[in-house]
Design brief:
Elements: H1 2-32, H2 35-45, E1 56-59, E2 84-85, E3 92-94, E4 103-108, E5 114-123, H3 129-139, H4 150-153, E6 154-159, E7 162-173, E8 176-187, E9 190-199, H5 200-205, H6 207-215, E10 218-219
Antiparallel strand pairs: 2-10, 3-4, 4-5, 5-9, 6-7, 7-8, 8-9
Amino acid sequence: MKLHLISLLLVLAALPFTGCRDQKITAYRAAKDPAPVMAAAATAQMAPGATLPDGHPAIGGEATPASAPGAMTGSVPTAEGMALLWTAPAHWTAKSLGSMRKGSYAVAGEAGAVGDLAITAFPGDTGGLFANVNRWRGQVGLGPIEAAQLEASVKNIEANGLKMTIVEATGQANGVSTTLLGAIVPHEGQTWFFKLIGPAALVTHEQTAFRDFLSTIKPR
């Protein structure tokens, strides 16, 4: 009888410890429940909408219409306001600016040929002259030049107090002989790009008009 009583007391004494142990386990599991919520929040931070800069800029990245040779896609910050003014040749036809351009013209040639004149501006030096020259060369299917070749690959002029670097490149874009004629113009912490691209014969014919156009560019 005493043995049974002692056994019963031992069983009863053990019950509170079992209950406490179960409560600790339950409390621990409850504390871990919010973990999936944190994972969801982290996923939300990586949702579509974030963009990379090209910077242009890298990049630089000047954009041209998707139908134009050497067209690029993406989004980069453009320079604010209108810091430069110009007068386009009468035979250039103004067209929609879009979200990237400060100026935009269609340049018609013979047999239905059309060139694209784009004016864009970006903060800073957009990667520097060397990078931008090679970027433009790539748009007409040419390989990059070496840094030592840069000086011989460009011409420098000055008009209305603005220093301009002239770039001309001819190559094959989409199987067509294509020429790019452009000017890079730094101004008040921004870099402006004036670029004519199209069939080689058309752009070559427009060289004089393009140079006259550059002479009209001036600070606002």
